[in-house]
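FAQ

Q: What does a record look like?
A: Structure on top, sequence underneath. For example:
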């Protein structure tokens, strides 16, 4: 008999009734060190007092107002994002997938309005942009698309990081190049700064728009507000979600005025996107994370955690191959299925997330303390010991 909850997830037999910072409390009273943060969502940890206050204050006034009216909380958050980034304008969504859908529509509309519609968006293999029909077509992986055809046309994938293949694929007919600066689901695979610069240059030469998916790598995760800042480049369109709501469903598409020019009244919409509750929380998240001192701390703690992980690799060379990632978006490349370590971690009361390419993901709250990083290394070491 089919479970009452559609079984599209392999769920661990764990449930939590409370969260405090980097810790989750299970229903049996045990405390788990959360190095997954809801897959990079709880950027400020669980039950952050400033977010609880922002949410409850807003909840006592007004929850939802249609986008046919002005929404001051939404305008304030858009203003903050515009001030802190390359973008001139923002559209709010409820998720990363919805942000991907708008990014694709925006790029297509840009070319349609120039009277030279360009159909093809080039992406990297191993990409993840969500599970909608458009997002799975964009990523193109067999695992995600099998059984869901016919696929939305207009996407071409090139092998991950293969710059020669990318250069061959991108030409005067390319609508856009869409990629994650650091692939998350794909296994914490970082594109070198030089490649990001070369892709920006390739887009400038051909006119193709550069769409960056910073749903997982953004909102301070790497020690900069957005990961692309490390390479000193800017996209034309960017998808954001996960950390931006700190746990409240919120996503956004950021764009330059030029890229967004076609998205006039009536071309796109969302019932809930940018609603007052989400934007009240998002505003507080942004206020905390965009502070340069906060971002410097993320970079410092990321380096500390990486050092600890290198120690783990040295101690268990039969299990771990190396460390990947940047800031607090870290991965352990494994010689064993990462799911084995995720499971061993449950026994040590530490939560991690598996990814593709045999990589274990570590995406703790950005508020994790030095002591908690030491504790994380200890628990991961014991979990690795269980695989012997
Ligand atoms: C999680 C993720 C998405 C999809 O976001 P949802 O909020 O699950 O729809 C898209 N892109 C990247 C890079 C992601 O990590």
């Amino acid at each position: 008999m089919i479970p009452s909850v559609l079984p599209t997830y392999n769920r661990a037999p764990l449930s939590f009734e409370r969260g405090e910072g980097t810790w989750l409390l299970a229903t049996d009273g045990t405390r788990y060190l959360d190095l997954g943060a809801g897959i990079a969502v709880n950027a400020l940890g669980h039950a952050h007092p400033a977010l609880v206050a922002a949410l409850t204050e807003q909840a006592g006034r007004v929850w939802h107002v249609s986008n046919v009216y002005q929404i001051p909380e939404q305008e304030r958050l858009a203003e903050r994002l515009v001030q802190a980034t390359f973008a001139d304008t923002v559209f709010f969504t409820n998720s990363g997938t919805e942000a991907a859908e708008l990014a694709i529509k925006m790029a297509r509309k840009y070319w349609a309005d120039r009277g030279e519609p360009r159909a093809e968006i080039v992406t990297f293999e191993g990409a993840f942009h969500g599970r909608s029909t458009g997002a799975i077509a964009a990523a193109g992986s067999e695992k995600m698309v099998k059984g869901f055809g016919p696929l939305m046309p207009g996407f071409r994938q090139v092998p991950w990081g293969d710059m020669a293949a990318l250069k061959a694929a991108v030409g005067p007919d390319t609508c856009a190049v869409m990629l994650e600066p650091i692939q998350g689901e794909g296994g914490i695979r970082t594109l070198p700064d030089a490649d990001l610069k070369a892709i920006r240059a390739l887009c400038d030469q051909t006119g193709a728009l550069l769409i960056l998916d910073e749903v997982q790598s953004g909102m301070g995760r790497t020690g900069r507000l957005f990961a692309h800042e490390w390479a000193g480049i800017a996209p034309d369109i960017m998808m954001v979600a996960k950390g931006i709501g700190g746990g409240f469903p919120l996503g956004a598409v950021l764009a330059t005025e030029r890229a967004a020019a076609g998205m006039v009244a009536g071309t796109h919409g969302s019932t809930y996107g940018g609603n007052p509750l989400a934007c009240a929380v998002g505003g507080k998240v942004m206020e905390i994370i965009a502070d340069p001192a906060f971002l410097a701390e993320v970079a410092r703690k990321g380096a500390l955690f990486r050092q600890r992980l290198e120690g783990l690799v040295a101690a268990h060379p039969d299990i771990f191959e190396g460390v990947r990632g940047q800031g607090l978006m870290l991965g352990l490349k494994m010689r064993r299925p990462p799911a084995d370590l995720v499971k061993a971690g449950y026994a040590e009361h530490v939560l991690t997330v598996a990814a593709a390419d045999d990589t274990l993901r570590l995406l703790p709250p950005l508020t994790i303390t030095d002591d908690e990083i030491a504790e994380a290394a200890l628990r991961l070491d014991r979990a690795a010991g269980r695989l012997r």
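Q: Is there anything notable about this one?
A: The chain has two domains: 50-289, 293-363+381-388.
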